[in-house]
Amino acid sequence: MTLDWPELDLTRRSGAGGADGRGALASRQNSHVALARSGPRLLQPAEFDLSQTLVGPAASLPSFLDKGVELRAGTIVPVLEDDCLEVLACMLDVKQDIVRGIGAFLSEAERRRAEGLKSERDRRRFIACRGQLRQVLASRLGISPSDVELEYGRLGKPHLSHRMPSRNLRFNISRSEDVAVIALSTGQEVGVDIEAVRPVPEADEIAALCFSASDYESYATLGPDDQLEGFFRRWTRLEAIFKGLGCGLGHPSSSDDMDWVVRGFIPKTGYLGCVVVRK
Length: 279
Prior knowledge:
Blueprint: E1 27-28, E2 48-49, E3 76-82, E4 85-91, H1 96-103, H2 108-115, H3 120-141, E5 150-152, E6 158-160, E7 169-176, E8 179-186, E9 190-196, H4 203-210, H5 213-220, H6 224-245, E10 260-265, E11 271-278
Antiparallel strand pairs: 1-2, 3-4, 4-8, 5-6, 7-8, 9-11, 10-11
């Protein structure tokens, strides 16, 4: 997944990203993995080789993943609502006429970014993601999707322009494969991450590199039947927090889990998600 700022994705081959939620498929470049724990150890680009596959083929999914919302192409569906927080999900593999229609909402910079993607599928998914994000924001602001103006933080995290009707609306977006989720919050920073759940042969090594000491220790004690769920629940929470901060994995931060309200959710069968809102 990468959006507009760095984010490590376990399902695709890309080293950087940003606010749309597609990211980097990674495997270790070096066989050595430091297991000594003194706190979180953030990934550095040199530690992973993007030329090898990390995620294995789909396997039979745990029963808890059967509880997702039924999504249909062309619709945006709420998957979590709680006070000032809302998470919406949508499909990205939509018909070409829908892509053309919502593509008209994109800014010139977004169109150039879409044109720069090599894969036709990636172009369609990017346009569908950005177009549907604009539709959601426009509905909250009472303006046209093409009039939504975005600005970007130092590391690329998008937020509403100061010229928009409500600067109090915060949002974050993540995508994995053909699903995207949009998190909306009033007044508080928000971060969201989703992942398509697939076997990750090097999950233990990634956990050792990325998880905090307490998360790694709790993960290491899980039995074989619980490790897949345990890995992705910890991973999505980690990514969501860093996305809420706007810094992305690989950038130091003093933030702690206790600074955030954390909510897990299942956007679709076979996916796990996590959304965090700053307290």
